[in-house]
């Protein structure tokens, strides 16, 4: 059952919660130079950044058949997790109900590897503040995870997050390719006055955003540090596992053992190498 979208005990953030944590800024060497989805039109707005799938196109001609989106350091930059992350978010693509207050927002895009090929089944775990700038730490309002489709695409329905002291407007996300490392980062909105004063703000993480009706539409393409070297052989399960196995479809409530430890499935999914129970807390819990 989807948790109720209320903030019974919202947490009012303050400037020291996130800004006091040690942080490191990582910049890309240049704009992404790729074109994979020829049918996707970019969302343009002043100050926005090029999408991985359309940055190589400068006219109406066809996009390059062999995309090149990496010059050795062009993966999406990481950012700090902050103090408001909660594991075990529900699996869902919408964080709102018809009565949720706030400006409607849809964020969509693709997840690519360093060879500019889409990554299917990538895990994306989103969390954000509500329209008043508060995080729900009691339940799972404005929290949810999803998996990219076969074409590497994702879509999130939410609202524009509110502001709170010390931060500009942003959305948190964790991204993980099957068998890959977790990327923790944040997405930002263009033309926000606080972008100039937020110490964590990184222009490389700006979404392209436009107004549509009474809401907004944003887009962003993630580029994960995945080499995408062809490898037809499935990654074997680590020694010591017993019941859990790749390729198996699990339902919520299923129990397995892995490495001699018992786990309970939280969300229905098909197991992939790299999604072993201790590595994916959104899908498994001990016990």
UniProtKB/TrEMBL annotation:
A Gene Ontology term for the protein's cellular component: extracellular region
GO biological process terms on file: carbohydrate metabolic process
Which segments show compositional bias classed as Polar residues?
1-11
Which residue ranges does the record annotate as region Disordered? 1-23, 55-98
Which parts of the chain span the membrane according to its record? 31-52
What residues does the Chitin-binding type-3 domain cover? 241-287
MF GO annotations: carbohydrate binding; ferric iron binding; hydrolase activity, hydrolyzing O-glycosyl compounds; oxidoreductase activity, acting on single donors with incorporation of molecular oxygen, incorporation of two atoms of oxygen
User: Which SMART domains has this protein been placed in?
Assistant: ChtBD3
Q: Which UniProt keywords apply?
A: Dioxygenase, Hydrolase, Membrane, Oxidoreductase, Transmembrane, Transmembrane helix
Q: Which PANTHER family match?
A: DIOXYGENASE (PTHR33711:SF11), DIOXYGENASE, PUTATIVE (AFU_ORTHOLOGUE AFUA_2G02910)-RELATED (PTHR33711)
Q: Which family is annotated?
A: Belongs to the intradiol ring-cleavage dioxygenase family.
Instruction: Indicate what this protein is called per its UniProt record.
Output: Dioxygenase
Q: Which organism is it from?
A: Streptomyces griseus subsp. griseus (strain JCM 4626 / CBS 651.72 / NBRC 13350 / KCC S-0626 / ISP 5235)
């Amino acid at each position: 059952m989807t948790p109720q979208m209320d903030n019974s005990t919202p947490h009012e953030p303050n400037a020291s919660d996130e800004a006091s944590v040690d942080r490191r800024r990582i910049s890309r060497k240049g704009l992404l130079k790729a074109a994979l989805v020829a049918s996707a039109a970019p969302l343009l707005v002043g100050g926005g950044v090029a999408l991985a799938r359309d940055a190589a196109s400068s006219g109406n001609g066809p996009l390059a058949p062999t995309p090149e989106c990496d010059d050795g350091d062009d993966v999406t930059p990481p950012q700090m997790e902050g103090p408001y992350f909660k594991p075990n978010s529900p699996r869902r693509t919408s964080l709102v109900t018809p009565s949720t207050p706030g400006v409607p927002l849809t964020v969509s895009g693709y997840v690519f590897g360093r060879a500019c090929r889409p990554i299917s089944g990538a895990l994306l775990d989103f969390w954000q503040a509500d329209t008043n700038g508060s995080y729900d730490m009691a339940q799972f309002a404005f929290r949810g995870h999803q998996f990219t489709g076969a074409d590497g695409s994702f879509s999130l329905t939410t609202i524009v997050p509110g502001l709170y002291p010390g931060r500009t407007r942003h959305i948190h996300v964790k991204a993980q390719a099957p068998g890959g490392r977790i990327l923790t980062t944040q997405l930002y909105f263009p033309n926000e006055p606080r972008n100039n004063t937020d110490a964590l703000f990184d222009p490389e993480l700006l979404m392209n955003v436009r107004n549509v009706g009474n809401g907004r539409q944003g887009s962003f393409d993630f580029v994960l540090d995945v080499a995408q070297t062809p490898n037809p052989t499935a990654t074997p399960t680590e020694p010591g596992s017993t019941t859990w196995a790749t390729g198996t479809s699990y339902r919520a409530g299923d129990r397995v053992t892995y490495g001699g430890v018992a786990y309970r499935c939280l969300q229905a999914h098909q197991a992939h190498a790299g999604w072993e129970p201790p590595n994916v807390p959104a899908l498994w819990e001990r016990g």
